[in-house]
């Protein structure tokens, strides 16, 4: 006789459990945790390099750089002045998961840290399913990508709190319409905070830094 | 494709549950996939088949219930279904919606003997 067993269990319940554990630990230490996601090459590492150079004397930053094959991004972040930097090489996996973050956090001394940045693997689909215990996801899109990106990858835009539009120095070179991107993104997520900047020309970065300062202060309860 | 990692999680949970319930054979797995999860049901089916070939779970039926995005408009109070990921109330045009369906990625049931 066939038996029907009711399971009603989340497929990613183990990941969610580990993520909740990370969130609890980081919150205890009042560390702001940001999960940076984008397509390959939108400028996640570039933005973190600039952020390190500008805010290193003000804020203690720990950085985890996820990559499918190399440790290049972690090396770039160290060169840019990052003191606590760890690579995660996923060896093929298209996303980071909470277990990988748990492993790295165990090795780090987080006592003095204000912000933990996690650079996810460049991919707009897969990382959206995996909670890493972050406070917020920051999604980047660059002006060399299509302005319909939000509509093609709605889950990521829905689950992010901030949209950074990078490479504004290249506006006008393609048919990328920045107002259209913002409209598309806000149809999916009305609460999205939008920051426009260029890592290359160093414009708009101050808005990003100011947002980081506010959020770290809020996390510290100041 | 993260569908492969998700298939692996499903296999682990099904193995655990069927051992707990003394199932000798699994014949069907019922899944719920919300439209907001970014999981492609067909890719998941394919990943599951690929990763169970030559295992005791080979050939198991996968029954997927696709869950649409549903909720309530906080401005006019009407129940709504979000189509095409446009999170705007079709009745009053407001954007403040309370979403309560569409995030599911669940194993609902297992059938076996
Ligand atoms: N023109 C222009 N180029 C930029 C800007 N920001 C970054 N780039 C370039 O874009 C390329 C990719 O930048 P990265 O910072 O490596 O992008 P990423 O998102 O970290 O890439 P992955 O980690 O591979 O996903 C590099 O060649 C950068 O120099 C910008 O504001 N303007
Ligand atoms: Mg990078
Ligand atoms: Zn309404």
Could you report the average pLDDT of chain B, rounded to the nearest whole number?
94
- Could you tell me the number of beta strands of chain A? 8
Q: Percent of residues of chain B in beta strands?
A: 25-35%
Helix content of chain B: 25-40%
How many angstroms does the end-to-end distance of chain A come to? 63 Å
Helical region count of chain A?
A: 8
How are helices and strands ordered from N to C of chain A? EHEHEHEHEEHHEHEH
Kindly list the characteristics that best describe this protein.
heterodimer; A: 222 residues; alpha/beta; 37% helix; B: 113 residues; three-stranded antiparallel sheet; 2 helices; binds guanosine-5'-triphosphate; binds magnesium ion
Quick recap of the structure?
Chain A contains eight helices and eight strands. Chain A has 222 residues and is α/β, with parallel strands linked by helices.
Topology:
The complex is a heterodimer of chains A (222) and B (113).
Chain A: E1 3-10, H1 13-28, E2 32-37, H2 44-55, E3 61-67, H3 72-79, E4 84-89, H4 98-107, E5 115-119, E6 136-142, H5 149-152, H6 154-159, E7 162-166, H7 178-188, E8 193-196, H8 205-220
Parallel strand pairs in A: 2-5, 2-6, 3-4, 3-5, 6-7, 7-8
Chain B: H1 2-20, E1 26-34, H2 41-52, E2 61-67, E3 69-73, E4 79-82, E5 97-101, E6 105-112
Helix pairs in contact in B: 1-2
Polypeptide structure, described:
The complex is a heterodimer of chains A (222) and B (113). Chain A has helices spanning 13-28, 44-55, 72-79, 98-107, 149-152, 154-159, 178-188, 205-220, and strands at 3-10, 32-37, 61-67, 84-89, 115-119, 136-142, 162-166, 193-196. Chain A is an alpha/beta fold and 222 residues long. In chain A, strands 4-3-5-2-6-7-8 form a 7-stranded parallel β-sheet, sandwiched between helices. In chain A, helix 1 packs parallel to helix 4 (98-107) and helix 2 packs parallel to helix 3. The longest helix of chain A is centred in the first third of the chain and has 16 residues, at 13-28. The model of chain A has no long low-confidence stretch (mean pLDDT 96). Chain B is an alpha+beta fold and 113 residues long. Chain B has one domain: hypothetical protein PF0899 fold. Chain B is built from 2 helices and 6 strands. The radius of gyration of chain B is 18 Å and the shape is elongated. The A-B interface holds A 1-15, 93-95, 97, 125-126, 128-130, 151, 153-156, 158, 186-190 and B 1-2, 5-6, 9-10, 13, 17-18, 21, 23, 27, 31, 36-39, 85-88, 95-96, 105-113. The complex binds guanosine-5'-triphosphate, magnesium ion and zinc ion (ZN).
């Amino acid at each position: 006789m066939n038996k029907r067993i009711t399971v009603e269990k989340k497929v990613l319940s183990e990941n969610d459990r580990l993520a909740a554990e990370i969130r609890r630990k980081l919150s205890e230490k009042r560390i702001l945790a940001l999960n940076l996601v984008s397509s390959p090459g939108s400028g996640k590492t570039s933005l973190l390099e600039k952020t390190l150079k500008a805010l290193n004397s003000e804020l203690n930053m720990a950085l985890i750089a996820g990559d499918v094959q190399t440790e290049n991004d972690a090396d770039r972040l160290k060169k840019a002045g990052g003191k606590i930097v760890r690579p995660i090489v996923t060896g093929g996996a298209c996303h980071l998961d909470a277990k990988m973050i748990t492993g790295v956090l165990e090795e780090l001394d987080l006592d003095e840290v204000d912000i933990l940045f996690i650079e996810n693997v460049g991919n707009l689909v897969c990382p959206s399913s995996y909670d890493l215990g972050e406070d917020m996801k920051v999604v980047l899109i660059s002006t060399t990508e299509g302005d319909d990106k939000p509509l093609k990858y709605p889950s990521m835009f829905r689950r992010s709190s901030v949209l950074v539009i990078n490479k504004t120095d290249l506006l006008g070179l393609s048919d990328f319409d920045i107002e259209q991107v913002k409209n598309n993104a806000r149809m999916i997520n009305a609460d999205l905070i939008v920051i426009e900047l260029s890592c290359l020309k160093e414009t708009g970065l101050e808005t990003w830094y100011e947002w980081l300062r506010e959020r770290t202060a809020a996390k510290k309860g100041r | 494709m993260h569908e492969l990692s998700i298939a692996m999680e499903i296999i682990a949970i099904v193995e655990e549950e069927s051992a707990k319930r003394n199932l000798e054979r699994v014949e069907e797995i019922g899944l719920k996939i919300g439209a907001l999860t970014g999981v492609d049901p067909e890719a998941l089916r394919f990943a599951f088949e690929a990763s169970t070939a030559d295992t005791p779970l080979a050939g198991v039926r996968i029954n997927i219930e696709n869950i649409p995005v549903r909720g309530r408009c906080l401005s006019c109070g009407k129940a709504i279904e979000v189509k095409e990921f446009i999170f705007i109330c079709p009745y009053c045009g407001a954007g403040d919606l309370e979403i309560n369906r569409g995030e599911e990625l669940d194993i609902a049931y297992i059938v076996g003997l």
